[in-house]
Amino acid sequence: MMAALSVSRSSFGLLNGFRTSFRTSFRSLGQVKHGAVAAAVLPTNLQRDSRWYSVSHLSVKERIDKKRTSALAGGGQMRIDAQHKKGKLTARERVELLLDPESFVESDMFVEHRCSDFGMEQDRNKFPGDSVVTGRGRINGRLVYVFSQDFTVFGGSLSGAHAQKICKIMDQAMTVGAPVIGLNDSGGARIQEGVESLAGYADIFLRNVLASGVVPQISLIMGPCAGGAVYSPALTDFTFMVKDTSYLFITGPDVVKSVTNEDVTQEELGGAKTHTTVSGVAHHAFENDVEALLNMREFFNFLPLSNKDPAPIRECHDSSERLVHSLDTIVPFETTKAYDMLDIVKTIVDESDFFEIMPNYAKNIVVGFARMNGRTVGIVGNQPKVASGCLDINSSVKGARFVRFCDAFNIPIITFVDVPGFLPGTAQEYGGIIRHGAKLLYAFAEATVPKITIITRKAYGGAYDVMSSKHLRGDVNYAWPTAEVAVMGAKGAVQIIFRGKENQAEAEAEYVEKFANPFPAAVRGFVDDIIEPSTTRKKICRDLEVLASKKQINPWKKHANIPL
Amino acid sequence: MAAHRVSPSLNRLLFAVKYASFQSGCCAVHCNAQYSTIHTPSEKTFDKILIANRGEIACRVMKTCHKMGIQTVAVHSDVDSSAVHVKMADEAVCVGPAPTSKSYLNMDAIMDAIRVTGAQAVHPGYGFLSENKEFAKRLAAEGVAFIGPDTHAIMAMGDKIESKLIAKAANVNTIPGYDGVVKTAEEAVKIAQDIGYPVMIKASAGGGGKGMRIAWNAEETREGFRFSSQEAASSFGDDRLLIEKFIDNPRHIEIQVLADKHGNALWLNERECSIQRRNQKVVEEAPSTFLDPVTRRAMGEQAVQLAKAVQYSSAGTVEFLVDSQKNFYFLEMNTRLQVEHPITECITGLDLVEQMIRVAKGYQLQHKQEDIPINGWAIESRVYAEDPYKSFGLPSIGRLSKYQEPLNLRNVRVDSGIQEGSDISIYYDPMISKLVTYGATRAEALDRMEEALDNYVIRGVTHNIPLLREIITHPRFIAGDISTNFLPEVYPDGFKGHQLDIDTRRELLASAAALYITAQIRSQKVLGDLRVSSSPLECSRWELCAQLEDGSHSVGVTKSGNVYTVEVDGGKVEVSGQWNLASPLLPLTINGTHRTLQCLSRDASGRILLQYLGTSFKVRVLSKLAAEFNSYMPEKVPEDTSSILRSPMPGTVVAVSVKPGDPVAEGQEICVIEAMKMQNSLTAVKQAKVKSVHCKPGETVGEGDLLVELE
Known about the structure:
Chain A is of the alpha/beta class. Chain A has helices spanning about 5-25, 35-40, 45-50, 60-70, 75-85, 90-100, 160-175, 195-210, 230-235, 255-260, 265-270, 270-280, 290-300, 340-350, 395-410, 425-430, 435-445, 460-465, 490-495, 505-515, 520-525, 535-545, and strands at about 105, 130-140, 140-150, 180-185, 215-220, 225, 240, 245-250, 285, 315, 355, 365-370, 375-380, 415-420, 450-460, 475-480, 485, 530. In chain A, about 50% of the residues are buried. In chain B, the strands form nine sheets. Chain B has an eight-stranded antiparallel beta sheet with strand order 14-13-10-11-12-15-22-20, sandwiched between helices. In chain B, strands 25-26-27-28-29-30-31-32 form an eight-stranded antiparallel beta barrel. A five-stranded parallel beta sheet of chain B has the order 3-2-1-4-5, sandwiched between helices. In chain B, a hairpin with a 2-residue loop joins β11 and β12. Classes of the chains: A alpha/beta (about 575), B alpha+beta (about 700).
């Protein structure tokens, strides 16, 4: 099998060398239950004799060999071929591509399921390693723990043993302080095991929760993930999906049909498109397994290993002193005209390399990772191109979750502000814009990582306060010459201040003169400086250098109570 | 940026040219004049000039004004308020909204701007009001100097029918044809039959290839008549047409003339402008490889005769068609500064704008005919924001997210009116710049052009550099074997970009693989103190798979220092360079030859878009393992485009010829999109029934917008 892993390869060599000697001494252990292996190899005559009749004639050496071979083959060639036919890689192929060559160290290859009902105890229903591959490895030299569910073994269903394997590497990841990447491809609970399987899920959920904010957790959905299983990805920091082959739903189309009489396909119900554009459950979708895994390697590079590590710094070829001339003309003269915030972000960050999170959901806010002079930063920006860049329920939640991730993992946050306010309307009010909007406010306010804010144009009303303002402990707050910090736009303001008066146009002009510029905020020290847009990159890089040693601690609490 | 030199000898002039270009790196505005001047500071001209134009030509004129100590006034539309020409000017006046008819063609507003600023003269540039007799008249009425010929010359030469009669009278060779107004399509067919096919139908008031159609039979004549009169009406407000014999395989060679108000006229040699697409020039050079001194003199003298016949003053251009026997025929006279004037400046050392200003003030010419040299060779490439893969260039729009002119090279002049961050909009001409290179010989100028095109960084809009580079390196072009049919003859199936051969494919793949490895190695370079130590891979040889459109190639890479040795398809390529992953330019040495590639994009999935030999190539580099796994990945079925008609460019829908339910034949016109004043007829690619129509006349559409669906 081509996906044979390095560890196993080298082990074979070792084992083969010892084969003969093992054969003579231990020819016993054939079909013992897995949990008994340790006891079985105790070299007492009694045990050897007592098992003589129940086991095969293979030596332990040969049996190890056989088990490993069998583990590597997963559910067998037929099922592997079927997996390939679906355009999917096998669990082991995925691990091999995700990690650096020769770096995977597998654990629990010999673990088997413990179910004895419904004929599951039969030999042909035992697969060494069961339906998940677990272990640790390196991505670009950096440590990571990985589990990869094996669809070729019982459809990747989750047995008690399967869960136990996942929990083991999660516990190790927590002890060491290294991220966990889960590659999900599972039909769901191992029904034959009943409650054991449910317990397994809960064990994983608990660890997901405990690890949250301690080590980065990433889920890559590469096949089905349905029922209770979906809550593990949901608890992790990032959920990525593969287009056309992955699904996430609580209940499948059949159940939906029987309960609500809705006709819906798997793809419509829980496909990559649904979750990256409509529900906001997933953070990104990739074309296929290979692209997804290669992108995971790239994405992983942005993340620190744990909450004890600073944001990583990668060798940078882009000068931190680089001036970005195109920014001097990017904000249009007409305040109502849109521009693309991504143009600003991409020209400011290192090498235009921006890993956008949720690019197709709540597009009125842009969030993602980039680097400044090699150091990972989180970027948050209002997107004037979509809904004028206003804040609404979805964009607030999207922004808040991202800001909290950055804060949890010591990633500085750079915020680009062009926000006309919160979106008005019954849909928003009934939907709870008040409590959802509060999430973003909360996230920015509690964040203690370096926070740099650039007001490119509008910063109106409460949304100004929310967007990492000086008042929320922004470390460096800049305004471009095109910035306007005000309670609202000129027209609305004039209608209130000069209600009923004539000469509204004149009053409007006066208001614009007074407030539609960065001075009112600058004279009060609410922005630290008014800067030429072309110098933005240079200034941010210098500020980050200084802020690297920022120390800020929030008051002790058991945990904070973010308005959920 | 031209050096100030007072009356140098002509040899020194050439030196001045080189000097000027050498200094260009520190030029504040990215424009570099490849001409010197014999400007006499004591010669008083105007205090303030208004430039009634935009873009590169406005900047070009201002540069000379600055040099001559003349104040400048820019006019601009509202969308142009932060344009380069506005920033360059001492004063700027907004003359209206974006559409040209409301701003740059808005005579009332421009006259107001002149009054408000007190400009004493107006330079009209080219296009817009440059050949508008009405405008010239109004200026004269207010006592403002028009930097161009007098009204009567504009009138005489502006009308193609009249100009031909005048030319005939002045003993200038003319093309057989019908000199008169054609009223109906049937009349056009009859005239065409009299002259004999092929015939050219063109707008009497036109220029720049607009409103021009060639017809080879009666049906095409009718269609051409319809199109030309429509375009003429929309572009010039004048739908008169003329029909003349179309000269097959002709060269387009023009003579630059310069005349003063005292009856003196000079010819400043020729410009070869045969490389055209849809009758618009793409690459020009001076001098022409085709002319011998005798023909050159004959053409020059006829051009001067014509100028004198209309009492021409200022700079002007007499266009000729030249057949393979070196017979030349008068085509038209452009009574303005031509787009391609820089190449004449390069070989003669004259600053034409300066001469125009002097002449407008009433000074006599400073030169005699025998003073006009041909020094070296100059080539101009018109760099356009357009997609050369669609009919040799359909307009593209966008924002120049990154823009870097190759001014670090010697003997390169770039006339542009845009900068990084500028928008190329649907309202104006999509020209990005005029890239001019100069050399003592044609070969030198061509080599420099090649280098300049490779070093020209343009991001954010589609551009025609792939086509330009293919043209200037094509054996026929190098041999000087060209005609106005060059493009359709060389690329009968349309332009497809540079075609790789075994060696160039290897070079491309090797460069891509080396870049990929550079990025891979860099990914492992995590700096700072690490709590958990990193264990980067120590690797000295990589087995990769590089995919191009034509399939997969096995690639083996070894690295030592900055040098990669790459084995591709059994051949060995050595690539070295600085390998800066942030730089758009990749100056490499490939097997000992220096080549500049550009990295247009690079992603995590190994996709690298490289501009190599002008053309951008999609390469996908994967590790052996990833490539093997990739073979299991299903091909995603692309959308069936044969039943979907999308707009090939941004523009306005002029006409929709079908409605849902209509049957259409293959090749039948479905709708017409107008962009940058060009009408483009979109046709059905198969016989089908119209399913739905998603656009209506008058609507603005973007590139790729769905227009019509077929069943």
